[in-house]
Amino acid sequence: MVRKNMFAFTLAEVLVTLGIIGVVAAITMPTLVANNREKQLITALKKNNALIEQSLYMVQSKYGYTDYAEMFAMNSTQELYNKLAENLKMSKSCGTASNQGCISNNMIGARYRNNGWGSTVSMSNYDQSTSWAKGQLTNGSSIFLHNYVKSGTHNNSAASSTKCGVAWPQCNKDSKGNCVSNKKDADGNYVYGGVGVQCGLIGIDVNGPNKGPNQFGIDVYGYVVQPTKLSNWESSTIETMRNDKLYYNKYTPGKYENK
């Protein structure tokens, strides 16, 4: 009979191996969790983006508006919210009433600003304002919007010609979206980056008011409504969906955070 040598790990070897596995897991798990969370937020953004675009299209078709400019020109913020809500599954509607809990009290900006904010990301309280309409969707997201046309915000010739509510010279911006010192031409006049025309703003908190961090660029995203399209507001909304990547700066409190 041939006898075979049997080998086994000692208790010490098993403990060392388990220790190594534990260390590797401790190092890699936070990254895996963060990556998974990021994917979930981006997926939620894409789903809500589709809902918003579909709702805008359905309102435009139902009421015969030629474009977003006419849609916003013909409705107050509350009226516009009501029409959009017809096509969204809402669990709670706060309208323009303040502090009703449909959205977070404080929303953190996406990027550092160099126009007085220093290294602090600014905070805003849209829930407190009666010029914003707010609501919660059955999917757990929150929506908030503001119509410049009917809000009493200034109208000038550039805006009036497109029916939209606000038009102003845009500042020159750096790679992070910060306004930089405007250049001057040979006659000493400021040279701006162009004229921005806005009909209103639409924001979406993809995981609702009770789940953080309630920061633009992570779980909160915004759109500037222009006459015929949506563009970024306070976040790289379009780039996030295109590149499957979040764009934001880590929030650090500062003395201007609630202003």
Could you describe the largest sheet, including whether it forms a barrel?
6 strands, antiparallel
Number of helical segments? 5
Ends: how far apart? 88 Å
Nearest-angstrom radius of gyration? 24 Å
Overall pLDDT metric: 78
Task: Summarize the helices and strands and which ones pair or pack.
Elements lengths: L10 H53 L4 H6 L3 H9 L4 E6 L11 E2 L14 E2 L8 E5 L4 E6 L9 H4 L5 E4 L13 E2 L5 E2 L3 E4 L1 E6 L14 E6 L4 E3 L4 H7 L16
Antiparallel strand pairs: 1-4, 2-3, 4-5, 5-10, 6-9, 7-8, 10-11, 11-12
Features:
259 residues; alpha+beta; two-stranded antiparallel ribbon; 5 helices
Structure, described:
- The protein is α+β, with helices and mostly antiparallel strands and 259 residues long.
- It has one domain.
- It has 5 helices and 12 strands.
- A 6-stranded antiparallel sheet has the order 1-4-5-10-11-12. A two-stranded antiparallel ribbon has the order 2-3. A two-stranded antiparallel ribbon has the order 6-9.
- A hairpin with a 4-residue loop joins strand 11 and strand 12.
- The C terminus is likely disordered.
Question: Could you give a short description of this structure?
Answer:
The chain is an alpha+beta fold and 259 residues long. It is 31% helix and 19% strand.
